[in-house]
Amino acid sequence: MTDWFSQHRPLLDKAIDACARRYSWSGWPESPSTKVHGEEKPAAGRAAFEAMLGNDFSLGQPGVSDWVGEEVSPYTGKPLGIRYEAPAPEALFGAIAAGRKDWAAASPQQRMGVCLEILQRCGEQLFANAHATMHTSGQSYVMAFAGSGANALDRGLEALAYAHKAMSDVPETASWERSFGGDGAACLDKRYRLVPRGVSVVICCATFPLWNTYPALCASLATGNPVILKPHPAATLPVAMVAKVCRAVLEEVGFDPNLVTMVADTRAAPAALALVEHPDTAIIDFTGSPRFGSYLEQNCPGKQVYTETAGCNSVVLESTDDLAATARAIAQSLCQASAQMCTSVQNIHLPAAGVKVAGERVPLAQVQAAICEAVDGWLADPRRAATLCGTLFDPSVTDNIARYRELAGDRILRDSAPLHYAEFPEARTASPLVIAATESDRELYRQEVFGPVSFLIANSSAEACLADATANARDCGAITSHVYSVDESFIEAAVEAYHAVGASVAVNLHGMPINFAAAYSDFHVTGLNPAGNACLADLAFVTSRFRIVQSKFMRS
Amino acid sequence: MTDWFSQHRPLLDKAIDACARRYSWSGWPESPSTKVHGEEKPAAGRAAFEAMLGNDFSLGQPGVSDWVGEEVSPYTGKPLGIRYEAPAPEALFGAIAAGRKDWAAASPQQRMGVCLEILQRCGEQLFANAHATMHTSGQSYVMAFAGSGANALDRGLEALAYAHKAMSDVPETASWERSFGGDGAACLDKRYRLVPRGVSVVICCATFPLWNTYPALCASLATGNPVILKPHPAATLPVAMVAKVCRAVLEEVGFDPNLVTMVADTRAAPAALALVEHPDTAIIDFTGSPRFGSYLEQNCPGKQVYTETAGCNSVVLESTDDLAATARAIAQSLCQASAQMCTSVQNIHLPAAGVKVAGERVPLAQVQAAICEAVDGWLADPRRAATLCGTLFDPSVTDNIARYRELAGDRILRDSAPLHYAEFPEARTASPLVIAATESDRELYRQEVFGPVSFLIANSSAEACLADATANARDCGAITSHVYSVDESFIEAAVEAYHAVGASVAVNLHGMPINFAAAYSDFHVTGLNPAGNACLADLAFVTSRFRIVQSKFMRS
């Protein structure tokens, strides 16, 4: 068998080191620039994407009774015309069972080698994946290349680093010797075997289809579990491309390709519940709505459930030395990927009496204006706006904006409007809708409003800002939280307050996209508030995906 | 603060090494012999135990509305007359909340130090604990000293070794630097903080009250969670003695003693459900009946549940070179602690055509007789019988024997009878009841029969023995499984068959107590069959008892 483990060992070792010291590192290129890649590769990737349009995407899976596909490009408004396999659950689980034993019996190194090779090959189709992601999730080309490429692959590698650590913690053999009373020494040879839990179902989301898929896939597969990928009907292609790579790699080294399968479905006939409820399913990874995530957390006893859902991410702006820079940092989060990221901020808490700027109190209205102007600043250049905002992945996001515009009435600080992209005149776009709010609007902002809708919330004081923001994190979830302050004691209190409700917090981030979550460095999702029950990734993300059985033999 | 972490570091390091290489080691003495300890310590321990009889056992806990106690010595038949605190849940949880923050804020090293000191001090009361365990759980003095002393403490230390590994995997700080586009480098200082999950409820069993209590207590407390101990009404004293040590150690270094509490209850008014259902409870460790264990596994969504219940542990005897030795090994398991151990075997599967012994087939009846004679051999010397068998912890065990004697009718191969202990003429005892069975008696042996009741099951072939035993492990659970065979291919098939149903297996154990589970070496319970959902201990036993929150600060 090809020794992929040895071949990719340096990459794995680097990832393990990065996880231990948590510095900035990426195993893949983040820029799609032709300066880095030349002209040929980007063009070939685009051509590969275009060649898939209008065709059936065959994975050669068993039990395929139906083909489905309802993806529509948010850039062109046109259906992709691709159909995917919708295998019948019973036939699928039956077929999966056939290959389970061999995969379970493979050594951790063999399985790690296969997973590392899968990531490598996915890394070779980043250009095609970028186009596939653009025209399903609606991301901009740059975001689709980096965020859904390198950054997502890094998260898969990060999960592999943890899986390797957890599996390596169990030795393969031991020699054990002791005496009991006068019977002489008993000498035992012991063997320890890692045993996978069962079928692992990975439910992917629409807007970042691979971001949590790589870590879940890698964590489960490396520890011996077959994986069923269940993509969102709006963003199936990027997942199908990964499934195809997995199946090819598995087959190439003589494992059953059905160890990784994909079940496409439609909005009208969702397949997820049948998959997670199947008795063979032991592990569920879910990224998506808080409603379904919470249902899975509550209703799958005996199964290992990992969720990342959503929260109402907050900013508390108490004071700053540079209001323009702070406004720019916040505004970028309101724009980036049209605020469809799990790390996008939604609720910006401001003291009603204004914000201290370089020692002087700047009135609320002026701060509100600064943030809205900063949004306009990001959007001034249409090319930059297109790269920053991308599109709205689904018409429901447009509807959200319309609904909140109506609810906001005369409290709109900055209205949403379509953005115009020269290359894609039909793109579904919207600039940020910014709404003025007070604590009496709690029912509006105490939930995730998906898309570019945000609230500048005037609380009675900086302390009230913090109290409101942290109560919302506790009750409604938070994946990211930001504090801007030049007051050390306020910062300290803010960090403690966010931590007390199980939320991580970033302080005074400027001059970088504040939505950025760094693989190997940021522990993404705490698992301590309603935005998810797990961290992707840490040791806990992998240790329960396998168990240990042992055999002991008396030495004769 | 006393630097217990540094002081006990060598012990911890030794435990970590033992877990990694899994050799035989114990951190505490296993023999109660006066040759090791002198005359004074054993006598002082006995005196300490006797001084507690007939008195209220005060832990000084808050919210104590009631005192309860219904322990009766299985050796004397007399009530111990000790009453324990039964705090009202609401008052208790309220009091616990007060100390949580400080404990969570303590460094992992501080918490590890406290836990190590707790184990050390419990190690200083092993003689008193031995008497307390004898007169509640009914164990013999030797078993109560070793199995409920050193061996149990080792399991606590083992859990601490894993907790230390898991917590050490998360660095405290990191420096992160990268550039985004043309904005220059963003430099972040990051801090990672371990956050406990919540209150940890540990439900202890009657027959080995500390065996799983130390690991659960240590794993939860070291990772920052307050612990409520809920002992069995029949065996409260050993747990109360541990709780007292914990509270004293915590208080001594300025932590709230209510970080470890104990809730005594009665059979008529059990307290467990109210404790596990309280919203502050995040972690549940349970040792006890499959019925309640399974209830907790199914009905505590969102809470971390670790269970060890019971199964029907099996022996498959295919062939042996020394029938007498094999019979002696099996018979010892039927006698030891009156088969009230989680590792006691119950179902001995024999090929109906007989067992190959040194190449010759010995008829079934002769094998049955050899096992029964071996039981008699172990019991011939009354002193040895007392040390080996101890007593029946509860009258229900006597009832079990009576019930199965009636069900067995004329299939009794060896009848149960009282054992006579010179020192304790009133002791509740019973020698093993051994019943001949075939597969038509499946409803009898496909469940745990608690106490010294076993079945010599004649299956149609060695392969049928294995098929029956492994199906029972899969459906009804197994904590230990044994195979005796001199046929390498049968051994290999047996190991695979047991592993396939999530059961560990021991092969050809002779000349040692086959019930013995070695801390640091045996992964106790696989978590893959109905006998429990967790391993005590491995990394998975600790990693989900805490989460990680982070803060990041832009470097100015």
Automatic annotation (TrEMBL), chains A, B:
InterPro entries reported for this sequence: Ald_DH/histidinol_DH (IPR016161), Ald_DH_C (IPR016163), Ald_DH_N (IPR016162), Aldehyde_DH_dom (IPR015590), PaaN_2 (IPR011975), Proline_metab_enzyme (IPR050485)
Keyword NAD: yes
Keyword NADP: no
A single GO BP: L-proline catabolic process to L-glutamate
UniProt GO MF annotations: L-glutamate gamma-semialdehyde dehydrogenase activity
GO cellular component: cytoplasmic side of plasma membrane
Domain of life: Bacteria
Keywords: NAD, Oxidoreductase
Residues annotated as domain Aldehyde dehydrogenase: 72-500
Protein name according to UniProt: Phenylacetic acid degradation protein PaaN
Protein source organism: Parahaliea aestuarii
Gene field: paaN
